[in-house]
Design goal:
The protein is of the alpha+beta class. It is 43% helix and 20% strand. The chain folds into two domains: 5-71; 84-160, Glutaredoxin. It contains six helices and six strands; from the N terminus they run ββαααβαβαββα. The strands form two sheets. A four-stranded mixed sheet has the order 4-3-5-6. A two-stranded antiparallel sheet has the order 1-2. A hairpin with a 2-residue loop joins β5 (135-138) and β6 (141-145).
Length: 161
């Protein structure tokens, strides 16, 4: 099996899990209702494909339930209280790479730490609902789509975040 790795936020950490989409598909086909049974089933299925330390199981259960709800198309409240989360969406094209580099540069100039990730996978970009790239998302809010923001504009957005 050649399963993809998908990153999710577990507590304060970004964690890569193998075969998460397949797990969600299998669980959704079983029509398990929301609640403890669902969380446990998601965790059990993920553990078949990934190492999960016992100390992380409770946090992972909560994160899996949240991601599963997203998979089903349900509204999920995003929590960004722990700092800056920045996503640059776009394949490895010049414009997308420039937005990523400029964002890193501005973060360094401001002395700010952030969870910065350049998402290149088209399926993952689609999950964000973006049609135009490059796109910049700061703490779950789309700041730019289909253009390269200036460093001045990036600085303003990152200072406000």
């Amino acid at each position: 099996m050649n399963a993809e790795i998908q990153k999710i936020t577990v507590g304060e950490l970004r964690v890569g899990l193998v075969g998460l989409e397949e797990v969600f598909q299998q669980v959704s086909e079983k029509n398990i209702s929301n609640g403890t049974g669902l969380k446990q089933r998601l965790l059990d299925e993920v553990k078949k494909r990934n190492y999960v330390p016992s100390s992380m199981e409770k946090k992972l259960e909560a994160a899996l339930l949240k991601e599963y709800k997203k998979f089903l198309g349900e509204e999920v409240e995003e929590n960004h209280a722990s700092g800056l989360e920045i996503r640059v969406l776009g394949p490895s094209c010049r414009a997308c790479d420039k937005v990523y580099r400029d964002t890193k540069t501005v973060l360094a100039e401001l002395g700010k730490a952030a969870d910065l990730e350049h998402i290149r996978d088209l399926k993952e970009i689609g999950r964000y609902g973006m049609m135009a790239t490059p796109a910049l998302i700061v703490n779950g809010k789309v700041k730019s789509s289909g253009k390269i923001p200036s460093k001045k504009q990036l600085k303003k957005w990152l200072e406000e975040a």
